[in-house]
Amino acid sequence: MTSAEDVEDGRAVLVVLGTTVTTFLAHVVAHAVGGAIDADPDQPRPRAQRRADLRDAVPILSSGSLPTLVLLLAWLLALDPAVALPLAGAAVVVRLAGMGVLVARLEGRAPSPRSWWAGVVLAVASSVIVVLKVVLTH
């Protein structure tokens, strides 16, 4: 959890950026390990599969990019942390709320009200998880 002081001195940018990059790398490594479990040990993993693993992890990078940018601008422009922190958090919640529509489109379906509600439920559930984490660990 970042504080107003973390925004003012730029640490919040490093925390969010570091979390984004390490989560991305962990995801890529997990896919590589998972893909190796059933693979022929004498055959290298196909390049196309390695590229697909990287592509599949790109949403992690893009999810962290807007909050990082908000916090970077807040630091560089000395914006009020009381505005920057909720804005950075809202960027993530809005992104999560759009996941139902994104999944529908990736599956070749037109987004439906059910798709929208699935995204809203995901955003609310994720927000509750974050609140629980903060309450239980801070």
Task: Give a brief rundown of this model.
The protein has helices at residues 4-9, 11-37, 47-76, 81-97, 99-106, 113-137.
Task: Please describe the structure with a list of short key phrases separated by commas or semicolons.
mainly alpha, 138 residues, 82% helix
Task: List the SSEs and their pairings.
Layout: H1 4-9, H2 11-37, H3 47-76, H4 81-97, H5 99-106, H6 113-137
Helix pairs in contact: 2-3, 3-4, 4-6, 5-6
What form results from the Cα inertia axes?
A: globular
**Secondary structure tally, helices:** 6
Estimate percent helicity.
over 70%
Q: How widely separated are the two ends? A: 8 Å
Give the DSSP E fraction (strand runs of 2 or more residues).
Answer: under 5%
Tally the beta strands: 0
By oligomeric state, this entry counts as single chain
* Computed structural class: mainly alpha
In round numbers, the mean pLDDT is 89
Q: How large, in whole angstroms, is the Cα Rg? A: 18 Å
Poorly predicted spans = none
Order of helices and strands: HHHHHH
Major beta-sheet overview: none
Describe what this molecule looks like in 3D:
- With 138 residues, the chain is mainly alpha-helical.
- 82% of the residues lie in helices and 0% in strands.
- Helix 2 (11-37) packs antiparallel against helix 3.
- The termini are close together.
- 13% of the residues are buried.
- The mean pLDDT is 89.
